[in-house]
Amino acid sequence: MKKALVISGGGSKGAFAGGVAQYLMEKENRSYDLFIGTSTGSLMVSHLALGMLDELKEVYTNVNQETIFSNSPFIVKVVAGEKVVSINHLNTLWNLINGRKTFGESKNLRNLIKNKITKKMFDDIKKSGKEVVVTVSNLTANQIEYKSSNECTYEDFCDWIWGSCNYVPFMSLLEKNHCHYADGGFGSLVPIREAILRGAKEIDAIILETEVTQINKIPSKNPFSLLFDVFDFMLAHVERHNITIGKLAATNKNVKLNLYYTPTVLTTNSLVFDETLMRKWWKSGFKYAKSKREELMSEFRPDILTDKEIEEGIDDVDNLKI
Fold first, then answer.
1. Which of the 8 DSSP states describes residue 177?
2. Best exposed site among 52, 53, 233, 288 by fewest CB in 10 Å?
3. What's this model's pTM, rounded to 2 decimal places?
């Protein structure tokens, strides 16, 4: 039976997904034939396909703004112990003066991908028989595309991963094959249906948002924060649509689907990369997956009783007449 691991987009929140995946693969000994990622998920799937969890954790718990941005459109300040994000007007103006199409540049992320996802890793994935797929949004053709490790060269695969992660207009725009590509999450934030179309019969999907909206947005203070709010609104609805379609497809094709949401709101700006917070989120993901698996097992295994069921059972025994 073909099994798939799907990881949604979510920027720095990918650290939480790493913790969930580590628990599933190391403690539950779950193995997968297919790995599909969008945005930050696309950064993770190559390591996960090869079981390189320690190496992935090292990457996700040691990145910062400089690791990702070659020209960051943000300024991160600490005010009263809290991180506040504002726009770096000088960097943004510099990009516009130089004729660039975006407010910021993420060329450092492209270098990181090349350094951490090596040619040897790519070749090992092909030899393993596992398939790694990343999601990109083709803005020119107005369509979602899925790029498989089985159909790419190494250089192309690195480009597709980078393109999948580029949250334009704040990060670089991938120009390839006479088309413009951007974050895969703009069209397919949680590619559950694609996993089903590729033959998966059991899917673990890690969704880097809460299941129910838990916060209200504060009023926008400038055009940039308004743009973020608009994007968040659209992506939230893309995510719900993807999950609804995924659930329907899973029901129709008799696919077992396990969903892992974040239990709390991790951050309101996933383009801020804080090493300390990301280490914390990795641990939180590991603990959450453990509690979630125990919950799932209690639902499907009749030999595991809840405290209430045990108490009711004792009452029934006490009331028996022999």
1. T
2. 233
3. 0.87
d(CA 62, CA 45): 18
Q: Report the 10 Å Cβ neighbour count for 47.
A: 25
> Can you tell me whether residue 82 is helix, strand or coil?
strand
Reported as a pLDDT band with limits 50, 70 and 90, residue 75 is: confident
pLDDT score of 149 more than 90: yes
Rounded CA separation 189/187 (Å) = 6
The whole-angstrom separation of Cα 55 and Cα 127 is 20
Q: Which residues touch 95 (CB under 8 Å, ≥6 apart)? A: 71, 73, 102, 103, 104, 105
Q: Tens digit of pLDDT for each residue in 53-66?
A: 999 999 999 988 89
What confidence tens digit (pLDDT) does each residue in 231-283 have?
A: 888 998 999 999 999 999 999 999 999 999 999 989 888 888 889 999 999 99
Helix axes 40-49 and 14-22, enclosed angle (nearest 10): 20
pLDDT reported for residue 52: 98
What 8-state DSSP symbol labels residue 254? T
Q: Are strands 174-176 and 34-38 parallel, antiparallel or unpaired?
A: unpaired
CA distance linking residue 60 with residue 78, whole number of Å = 22
For residue 120, the model assigns a pLDDT of: 98
Unique residue bearing structure tokens 């089903």:
196
β-bridge mates for residue 105, sequence order: 71
Name residue, tokens 């040897």. 120
Start-end of H helices in the chain = 14-22, 40-49, 53-60, 65-68, 89-97, 107-116, 119-128, 154-165, 192-197, 223-252, 275-300, 307-319
Cα separation, 164 vs 170, in Å, equals 14
